[in-house]
Design a protein that fits this description.
This protein has 352 residues and is α/β, with parallel strands linked by helices. The chain has 14 helices and 8 strands. The strands form 2 sheets. It has a 5-stranded parallel β-sheet, with helices on both faces. It has a 3-stranded antiparallel β-sheet with strand order 6-8-7. Strand 3, helix 5 and strand 4 form a beta-alpha-beta unit. The protein starts with 20 loop residues before the first helix and ends in a 17-residue tail after the last strand. The structure holds a DNA duplex (22 and 22 nucleotides).
DNA sequence: ATTCCACGGGAATCGGTGGCAA
DNA sequence: TTGCCACCGATTCCCGTGGAAT
């Protein structure tokens, strides 16, 4: 059924970006100085999750690369700090190297300056909660370094940034969800390459595109899930029932990957919320205190305080794993999908 | 009206580690 | 090698805010 699984991977780069021609042109224009050894413009790419912001940046850089090599780095900023971002940029630079995390940030910037003999483009992916005013100001101090920042909300992202730095972001590109026909075109292309021919109909692709509301990542994962389900069920081709069941599997897979990427404390809190079903903040803290001693005893980590737990919980929310409803004392936490199992096992509740 | 308390921003503090001088 | 310092990043501490409970 699946002949080439690569086209369903999140990091797959299609040779041509369908229905994004305008955005590719605009971004190319902003980066174009780099092929003439001039610093490129800074760019902000915004839009909802899964509509191809990262793919746009990588694809455009790759196209530019065909003319003349433009060194670039790709950094996922979620949870990163000012220092870690510039160290990572340096690490990914062709002449760069690893610096220890105790290196003063100013030294990292100095090293970047000394290494950059030509333009260097850094994709700041998932840059929503980046310490952005600092990072951008630092970046402005490195001649030849330019940024493609990727965020969900353009206005919100720009809000805390000083006018001076804001002016350096000359290009702002807004991507929106694809139309149903547009996304169906994209899925059709993936099916042509990735699936045995004729196993999925245009109507089914439209159905997927519609169900995921034009979010390409979700559509592509659903198509893949539908193909897997068809194979498991020994259907010769994808049937409508496989499509029906594909969405849940695709969503769950994205969430499971998110959960796995988080560190230990987050796993503990997720497990607690998962165990409870729905739980108020006070009760959650009590339960944490109950289980923490046992849970952390053969871990090098120590239990964290309430304030840190709140930070972890809001990260779980950002990752689409936990919902918080209600305000203040009325707040209730619950997991988005019960079927996404926690990675760690809870000690049994102590009997009363 | 008053008290309670979770939230979340920001400052202070702590622990770990590389670099350096002795 | 050892001891100290500078620094980062993680966590805690502090506190203003505002909705809920009394």
């Amino acid at each position: 059924m699946i002949e080439d699984g690569r086209v369903f991977r999140d990091d797959h780069l299609p040779r041509e970006l369908q229905h994004r021609e305008g955005a590719v042109r605009e971004l190319s224009g902003a980066l174009e100085p780099a092929i003439r050894e001039r610093p490129a413009d800074d760019v902000l790419v915004s839009g909802p999750s899964g509509v191809g912001k990262t793919v746009l940046a990588r694809h455009t850089l790759q196209r530019l690369q065909q003319h003349v090599g433009v060194p670039h780095a790709h950094i996922r900023c979620l949870g990163e700090t000012r220092g870690s971002i510039f160290r990572e940029a340096l690490r990914q630079h062709p002449q760069g190297r690893d610096l220890p995390r105790t290196t003063p940030v100013d030294d990292v910037l100095a090293e970047l300056r000394s290494v950059l003999d030509r333009p260097f483009v850094v994709i700041l992916d998932e840059a929503d909660d980046l310490p952005r005013s600092k990072v951008l100001e630092d970046a402005c101090r490195v001649f030849g370094l330019s940024m493609i920042a990727i965020s969900h909300d353009q206005e919100q992202w720009l809000a805390p940034i000083s006018d001076r730095v804001r002016r350096s972001i000359a290009t702002k590109i807004q991507l929106d969800r694809f139309g149903v026909d547009e996304l169906a075109d994209i899925l059709e292309r993936r099916a042509d390459i990735g699936l045995r021919s004729g196993v999925v109909s245009r109507e089914q692709l439209q159905r997927i595109a519609d169900e995921v509301a034009g979010v390409a990542r979700a559509g592509i994962q659903s198509l893949r899930a539908a193909a897997e389900l068809a194979r498991e069920r020994e259907h010769g081709e994808i049937r409508d029932v496989d499509v029906d069941d594909s969405f849940e599997r695709a969503r769950r897979r994205i969430r499971e990957a998110n959960l796995r990427s988080l560190p230990w404390h987050h796993q503990v809190l997720y497990a607690l919320v998962h165990e409870a079903g729905t739980i108020g903040a006070g009760e959650l803290h009590d339960r944490y205190d109950q289980v923490s001693e046992q849970l952390y005893e053969d871990s090098p980590k120590t239990p964290i305080g309430k304030r840190s737990r709140r930070n972890k919980l809001s990260k779980l929310r950002d990752y689409g794993l936990v919902l918080d409803e209600g305000k203040r004392q009325n707040r209730k936490y619950r997991v988005v999908d019960e079927a996404v199992k926690p990675a760690i096992e809870m000690p049994r509740r102590t009997p009363y």
